[in-house]
Design brief:
The complex is a heterodimer of chains A (about 425) and B (about 160). Chain A has about 425 residues and is mainly alpha-helical. Chain A is built from 17 helices and four strands. Chain A has one domain. In chain A, α6 packs antiparallel against α7 and α12 packs across α16. The model of chain A has no long low-confidence stretch (mean pLDDT about 85). Chain B has a domain of about 90 residues: 2-Layer Sandwich (Alpha-Beta Plaits), CATH 3.30.70. Chain B is an alpha+beta fold. In chain B, the strands form two sheets. Chain B has a three-stranded antiparallel sheet with strand order 2-3-5. A two-stranded antiparallel sheet of chain B has the order 1-4. The chains are: A mainly alpha (about 425), B alpha+beta (about 160). At the A-B interface, α2 and α14 of A face α2 of B.
Chain lengths: ~425, ~160
């Protein structure tokens, strides 16, 4: 194993772990802020460290500290299966975390004859891994709910089981039609396929080629991640908290975080399979490497505009009403953040200028392209996470028999129909 | 018997597809989201506690107070009407003989346990002397021990009415 391979592997693992774990506080914060803003409230915006509130994201870290230091309460009525009861949240959490690990964050690097995948788990059967490991999460839910010896938890477990029956088939069928289209089970190859164009001008993203499969897949993933409108397993208003009722402190937090990681993984899989993954539309990796000088020249122009717009937005909104004299250090925070952003802008401009005007080596260009692709991936990931959140605060909950009906009467036949049409088209095009 | 046939909605293809309705809903929530992200000050909320509510009307039942006579002495005559009317049983009165010649009786102790109180206002209704009122406009009471929430006569006498008569 060469040094380059070691560095790339370590880097990808660290990146995947960061993207999965550091995303949780951000997602929890986003969830609460977006819920507030949708309902014309403000959401958490008070917690701060020396006046720095970063729009309220500090609240999530305070929540984590609180959960970690909370009393580890163990319900006395649970006599059997204690070990499994404690293990259950960990199963859900690790299943969600592992499912994220085969997502490619950038195109394969070619260093001195070696092809280095920027995947935490550099395998070429990514979608199978996701389906297999992602579906394991429900086992933690079943164990936890059953061993809680609690009626609400049992009801939640029963619902979780029925949900599993409802959505796994349409999910699989949607994936099958995509496999027929891409003719591969490798996420990287799928992304590469999506750099083509259809009808001459549209990027051949999965959502353009297979809109029906996209709808089926995202509906099934909403169900798999227990997100509204399919969060029947928790059903706060009906069965307290479902399988999590008897869990407290960090055990509860593992379930809670597992949910957000699952949502994050689902968003990552959706953008990898249907929205071109880490690729920019119309720009394949080869084209990007070839004309990276021009590209960084374009970035040199665009970045100041974006940062200027962001600073203006921040200075206008990081402020309480003018009728109040006391603003809790918000103006100071805005000033410091402005300076930080300007320094960042200068650094970025210098880097872009290097790639635009100096003669970077082929390896440097490759790494720069990978970084750009990682950035594109993260932006797409955030957008899709926000979509998940907005949907949650838009739709009411399905009843669990309605989910079953939806899965078996509508999604399943549609999935079969979609496979049928896809197969016919592929045979027609192929012959 | 008259039978009215109610027309069921939601059977049209458009409703059964469900997706157009989702799209409509997303449009509404996204509009609110984008408007508020663009201008957080358009969100009509109170920056409590820096901003205090200004819309408390004189009918608002806030913390209790004991009123005074013209000469500044306590108006209460310790008749126990309020304590009798109280559904929560949170008013504790100990009567004493009044020696200053203004009246015959007065409370030596008049305490309200605000943790028990349900702020129904029956004590105010029951009082024959207009001695207890809930017009202070105070809506928050803070303490670190349970005992802090039992308001004694001196505290109740010290509360000021927030509104004109």
């Amino acid at each position: 194993m060469s040094t380059a391979a070691l560095i790339v592997t370590l880097g990808s693992v660290v990146l995947a772990a960061l993207l999965a774990l550091m995303m949780i506080p951000v997602l929890v914060w986003l969830e609460r802020r977006i819920a507030g803003l949708i309902q014309d409230r403000v959401g958490p915006n008070r917690t701060n460290i020396m006046g720095f509130r970063l729009g309220g994201v500090i609240q999530s870290f305070a929540d984590v500290i609180k959960l970690v230091f909370k009393e580890e309460y163990y319900p006395g009525h649970i006599q059997t299966g204690r070990a499994l009861y404690i293990l259950a949240p960990a199963i859900t959490f690790s299943a969600a975390l592992l499912a994220f690990m085969t997502i490619p964050f950038a195109d394969t690097l070619h260093v001195s004859g070696e092809a280095l995948r920027i995947q935490a788990l550099p395998v070429d059967y990514g979608i199978l891994w996701y389906l297999a490991i992602g579906a394991l999460g429900i086992i933690g839910v079943l164990f936890g709910g059953w061993l809680s010896h609690n009626k609400y938890a049992l009801l939640g477990t029963q619902r979780a089981g029925s949900m599993g029956l409802s959505y796994e088939l349409p999910l699989g069928l949607a994936v099958v039609s995509m496999l027929l289209t891409y003719n591969t089970i490798d996420f990287n190859a799928m992304v590469a396929w999506q750099t083509q164009t259809v009808l001459g001008f549209l990027p051949a993203w999965g959502v353009v080629v297979q809109p029906l499969a996209f709808i089926l897949f995202s509906v099934a993933l909403f169900a798999e991640t227990n997100r509204a409108p399919f969060n029947v397993v928790e059903g706060e208003s009906e069965i307290v908290s479902g399988h999590m009722t008897e869990f407290s402190a960090m055990k509860f937090a593992l379930y809670f975080m597992g949910e957000y990681i699952a949502m994050n993984s689902a968003a990552a899989v959706i953008i990898t399979m249907f929205f071109g993954g880490y690729q920019l539309p119309y720009l394949s990796s080869a084209e990007l490497i070839e004309s990276f000088g021009t590209f960084s020249l374009a970035l040199m122009v665009i970045t100041p505009l974006i940062i200027y717009a962001f600073i203006r937005w921040m200075r206008r909104n990081n402020d309480v009403r003018s009728t109040l004299s006391h603003d809790g250090g918000r103006r100071f925070e805005a000033r410091v953040l402005t300076i930080v952003l300007l320094i960042k802008l200068v650094v970025l401009e210098l880097i872009f200028a290097y790639f635009a005007f100096a003669q970077p080596s082929a390896l440097q260009t490759q790494i720069a392209v990978a970084v750009v692709q990682i950035a594109v991936f993260i932006v797409k990931l955030m957008l899709f996470n926000i979509f998940f959140i907005v949907v949650r605060w838009t739709l009411p909950r399905f009843r669990f028999d309605q989910v079953q009906r939806l899965g078996w009467y509508y999604l399943l036949p549609l999935g079969l129909l979609n496979i049928f049409i896809t197969a016919i088209v592929i045979v027609g095009v192929g012959s | 018997m008259k039978i009215r046939v109610v027309q069921r909605h939601g059977t049209a293809l458009k409703d059964r597809l469900y997706l157009p309705a989702i799209w409509q809903g997303l449009k509404i929530t996204a509009t609110h989201l984008l408007k508020n992200v663009g201008d957080i000050k358009s969100v009509d909320v109170l920056e409590y506690p820096e901003e205090q509510p200004s819309d408390i009307t004189n009918r608002y039942r806030g913390l209790h107070r004991l009123t005074h006579r013209e000469d500044g002495s306590v108006r209460c005559v310790a008749c126990y009407m309020c304590a009798t009317a109280c559904p929560a049983g949170c008013i504790f009165i100990e009567a004493a003989e009044r020696t200053d010649g203004v009246d015959e009786k007065m409370p030596s102790r008049f305490a309200i346990d605000t943790l028990e109180c349900v702020f129904c206002g029956y004590c105010v209704e029951a009082c024959p002397c207009d001695a207890i009122r809930m017009d202070t406009g105070i809506f928050s009471l803070i303490g670190s021990r349970r005992e802090d929430f039992v308001l004694e006569k001196e505290q109740l006498l010290a509360h000021k009415g927030a509104f004109d008569e």
